[in-house]
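4.2 Preliminary Data

To establish feasibility before requesting continued support, the project team ran the inverse folding procedure on a target of 363 residues. The structure was first converted into the token representation described in Section 3, and no sequence information of any kind was made available to the design step. The complete token record follows.
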């Protein structure tokens, strides 16, 4: 029998690795929690997560284990909860919770198909570098897509060039780019990190005020990203694109010459105006008509039964009247950006070294 553990401690550990459980039941082991003897793990063939946990047994139990533990029992004292005792055999896990709650789960043999790699560096990234990487990933996440025919839509692309690394993401209608300062991280070749890995990396970083690290490695023929937060490890198998998108060329093409000097402060009322536009447009996937003229921005949104118009001050630095149409929900995603520019092919949102391009059509 393993050392008894408090219910909430066990639940917290299961919840930490739960994002790495597979949804598809095709390979049962990938839908199970793995008890390795020293760790609790989950792996779904794309990402893996591991937290420390010592047990006297080794094996894998179904994902419903967490659901069973979360069911509250009236016999459990809130002030002094009974600890959970776990006893494993070759085919089942016996869970004893206090005097009245017991259940058994079928347990698969410990024929684990994945070993969590160890960090290769002795010294993790400096905190300042880690913070910049997390910020860049957060900015790019608003553009990730779901189209499996375009591999770059399924994650964030890191491209090294001259000791610099630039992050990109796209969903086909938007592109995000975020540049890291020289030397922030070391990267030898282009890497596409899965969306799920990026989301979990941010969650782990922001939940734990402890030393974190990120690196890209290779095991055999598999390239992977590894994130560590204290003793917790997150693994992500890198995606490979046969026909890489030319992110750098595409972004440069859509950014007009001297755009930095033409960016203006985002109007304070823009977010509320976009909220209203989304309410009117989203159900029927209508576009919002944006008019820039005489120091004003006018947003007109209309469906079969509703219509809303917002007028905002906008010190446009370009020449003449400008009219475009766009999906308001795409622009709404950039709510924390502080500068913007509207021009023919797209709307440019900017914050620090990050830009977000939203495609639009001429009205």
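Position-by-position output of the design step:
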């Amino acid at each position: 029998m393993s050392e008894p553990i408090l219910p909430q401690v066990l639940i917290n550990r299961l919840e930490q690795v739960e994002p790495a459980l597979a949804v598809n039941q095709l390979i049962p082991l990938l839908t199970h929690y793995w008890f390795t003897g020293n760790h609790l793990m989950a792996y779904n063939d794309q990402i893996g997560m591991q937290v420390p946990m010592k047990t006297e047994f080794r094996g894998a139990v179904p994902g419903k284990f967490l659901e069973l533990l979360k069911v509250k029992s009236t016999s459990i004292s809130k002030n002094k909860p009974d600890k959970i005792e776990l006893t494993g055999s070759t085919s089942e896990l016996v869970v004893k919770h206090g005097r009245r709650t017991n259940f058994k789960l079928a347990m698969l043999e410990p024929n684990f198909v994945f070993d969590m790699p160890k960090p290769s560096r002795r010294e993790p990234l400096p905190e300042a570098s880690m913070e910049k990487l997390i910020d860049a990933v957060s900015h790019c996440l608003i553009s990730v897509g779901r189209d499996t025919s375009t591999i770059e839509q399924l994650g964030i692309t890191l491209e090294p060039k001259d000791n610099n690394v630039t992050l990109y993401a796209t969903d086909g209608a938007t592109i995000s780019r975020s540049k890291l300062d020289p030397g922030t991280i070391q990267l030898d070749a282009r890497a596409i990190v899965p969306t799920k890995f990026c989301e979990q990396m941010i969650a782990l970083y922001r939940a734990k005020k402890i030393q974190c690290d990120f690196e890209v490695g290779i095991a055999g023929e598999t390239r992977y990203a590894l994130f560590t937060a204290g003793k917790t490890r997150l693994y992500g198998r890198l995606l490979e694109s046969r026909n890489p998108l030319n992110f750098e060329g595409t972004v440069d093409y859509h950014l007009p010459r001297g755009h930095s000097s033409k960016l203006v402060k985002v109007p304070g009322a823009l977010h509320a105006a976009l909220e209203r536009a989304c309410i009117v447009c989203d159900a029927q996937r209508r576009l919002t008509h944006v008019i820039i003229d005489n120091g004003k921005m006018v947003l007109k949104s209309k469906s079969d039964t509703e219509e809303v118009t917002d007028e905002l001050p906008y010190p446009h630095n370009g020449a003449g009247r400008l009219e475009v149409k766009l999906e308001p929900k795409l622009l709404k995603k950039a709510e924390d950006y502080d500068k913007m520019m509207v021009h023919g092919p797209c709307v440019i949102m900017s914050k620090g070294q990050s830009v977000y391009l939203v495609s639009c059509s001429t009205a």
